[in-house]
């Protein structure tokens, strides 16, 4: 191979690499409705659409067992997959769990991990149907695939946003990221100390958002009961900015969001202040919120505004206007996808 | 945790650990027909059954990039999943590919891996529909999930074998294992030598069986065209002995197979001779053959005997007779599951 042609993977980034490797793919099976490029792949069987999503979690890259309990890790590993299925307006039904286990883990450790996975399955009504288990020479490897379904025609893709649609988010943003900062700070503080007690008082919400996120099944149900079908939707795993730009790119639109509309919890704000970090940057780019980002037609304004736990943060525009945030002092700043690049780790 | 209660995972083995961790699971979704315990999970949607199988491959445990070209690795990673779907009498339709990539890999390396995956998909008519890509702190991690389908009622499980059924295998056994021994031998011989040329003359079949296996779609079609539906089926990935014992355990039967009926290629025999290994042991326990092991009713004898590439090697018995092989000199020796334990690596 010509050394001069070598390209670094981190340069392309996750989405660039996937785009590159999957370019020119065409599907040969009639059942395949949607391949690479959304929260989940979609297959149609008669009047049902089947959804498939998968996540690979590696120790040292995605989680640090110094402060992540195995039961929480199992729970979160399942939840992040359920979240991808809800983000397509589907219902998660089954998961497969593949594990690579290094020698330092015992049967009891795996029982704890599975207890978390089984708890998440129990709460969300998902069946654990299979997987693969092997040894790992290094750390723990967790690969989960989730299968879901939706009645034909109910699935919501990323590419359906239209000019004047309202941009909505559920819950609040940035707390999981601040939880991670807090856990990392306490890990450093604990180094070399026996019987160290981490200081989490008044910040329990941040820790919970990081260690034990939930998937927003409640929001999907709320929207269905109100008769609102979003035009585009995805879950916020890499940060609001990055996800919104995915929706706008795939829908061929621009957008405007308003700084003062971005939902942020009090504890998130206090923590950002303590750490001297920009609060809005954390909310825009922090990631791991697992909230839903979606667009609805302008005509749904009154209906959506009434729903608890959902906030309208802006609107979709024509593509030539680009993607921007209007600050509190009325300055327009372009959005940038500064979300976590898992290939730069 | 009470240290005295710690149990080593290797003691339980892969199947023991999975049985332990998934004990007491019950499915809550109507669509879930079959969970843990076969080549694939099964979901029913109207008149179609959906199959899902997944494999996790880790560098240093499942493959050695010293002698495995990335394109072959990609091809094989896809094939082993297709094989699981055929082993259920289904058709593979889609795969998702998740990769953990360490820093020593470039974009070109991933292009080669993907070229192999895409080639396998092209030949077998499978759509690549998604995945996840991240960095890895250690070696290459490949997690592939395959989705397949079958008309309702066509799926063949492991638990359908009945007393007097004939036991059949496709192709020949032990060659992939001998190929691995050969590649390992040449790797050791090459250590420290520049411009080393491995000696594969007359053993090309063994290398091909190890590096570029195929899934037996042809056998599935042959059986369908002949109007034969196996009563039980699985693919041979861990070795004939181990797989046959899975079928007998799940079907609550015993079995007798005949040493002189086990199909073995000439090159496999020569290589076993060279290495001073027991040939039948290699064929029984070698693994990675990706051939199909299945049972058919005794009444299908004439029909199955006519089919090319399929050999009848024995028959199913009542459970109290246990699982055994009748040697060439008419001695009955019990079968043992000596297949590869991925958790003892």
Describe the structure.
The structure is a homodimer of 345-residue chains. The first copy, chain A, contains ten helices and 13 strands. In chain A, strands 8-10-7-11-9-12-13 form a seven-stranded mixed beta sheet, with helices on both faces. The first copy, chain A, is globular, with a radius of gyration of 20 Å. Chain A has 345 residues and is α+β, with helices and mostly antiparallel strands. In chain A, helix 2 packs parallel to helix 3 (107-124), helix 4 crosses helix 5 (204-211) and helix 4 crosses helix 8 (266-275). The interface between A and B is large, with 80 and 80 residues.
Overall structural class of chain A, as computed from helix and strand content, comes to alpha+beta
Biggest sheet strand line-up of chain A = 8-10-7-11-9-12-13
Fraction of residues in H or I helices of chain A: 25-40%
* Secondary-structure element series of chain A: HEEEHEHEEEHHHEHEHHEHEEE
Helical segment count of chain A: 10
Rg result of chain A: 20 Å
Largest interface: A-B, 80 and 80 residues
Q: How much beta of chain A, percentage-wise?
A: 15-25%
**DSSP strand count of chain A:** 13
How would you sum up the major sheet of chain A? 7 strands, mixed
Distance between the termini of chain A: 26 Å
What sort of overall outline of chain A do the alpha carbons produce when their principal axes are compared? globular
Average predicted confidence as pLDDT of chain A: 92
Features:
homodimer; 345 residues; alpha+beta; 7-stranded mixed beta sheet; 6-stranded mixed beta sheet; 33% helix
């Amino acid at each position: 191979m010509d050394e001069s042609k070598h390209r670094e993977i981190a340069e392309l980034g996750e989405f660039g690499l996937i785009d590159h490797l999957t370019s020119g793919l065409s599907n040969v099976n009639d059942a395949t409705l949607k391949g690479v490029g959304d929260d989940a792949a979609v297959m149609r069987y008669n009047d049902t659409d089947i959804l498939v999503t998968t996540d690979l979690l590696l120790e040292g890259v995605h989680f640090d067992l110094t402060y992540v309990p195995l039961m929480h890790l199992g729970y979160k590993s399942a939840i992040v997959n359920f979240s991808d299925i809800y983000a397509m307006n589907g219902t998660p039904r089954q998961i497969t769990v593949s594990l690579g286990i290094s020698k330092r883990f015992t049967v009891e450790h795996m029982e704890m991990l599975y207890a978390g996975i089984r708890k998440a399955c129990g709460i969300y009504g998902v069946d654990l149907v299979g997987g693969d288990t092997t040894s790992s020479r290094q750390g723990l490897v967790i690969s989960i695939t989730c299968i879901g379904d939706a009645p034909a025609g109910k699935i919501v893709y990323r590419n359906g946003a239209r000019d004047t649609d309202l941009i909505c988010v559920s819950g609040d943003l940035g707390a999981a990221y601040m939880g991670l900062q807090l856990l990392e700070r306490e890990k450093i503080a604990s180094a070399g100390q026996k019987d160290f007690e981490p200081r989490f008082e008044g910040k329990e919400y941040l820790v919970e958002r990081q260690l034990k996120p939930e998937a927003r099944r409640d929001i999907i149900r709320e929207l269905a009961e109100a008769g609102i079908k979003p035009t585009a939707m995805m879950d916020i795993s890499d940060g609001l900015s990055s996800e919104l730009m995915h929706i706008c790119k795939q829908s061929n639109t621009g957008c405007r969001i308003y700084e003062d509309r971005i939902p942020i919890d009090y504890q998130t704000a206090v923590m950002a202040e303590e750490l001297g970090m920009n609060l809005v940057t954390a909310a825009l780019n922090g990631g791991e919120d697992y909230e839903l980002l979606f667009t609805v037609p302008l005509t749904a304004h009154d209906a959506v505004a009434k729903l608890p736990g959902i906030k309208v943060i802006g609107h979709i525009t024509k593509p030539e206007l680009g993607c921007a945030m209007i600050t509190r002092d009325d300055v327009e700043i372009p959005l940038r996808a500064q979300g976590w690049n898992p290939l730069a780790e």
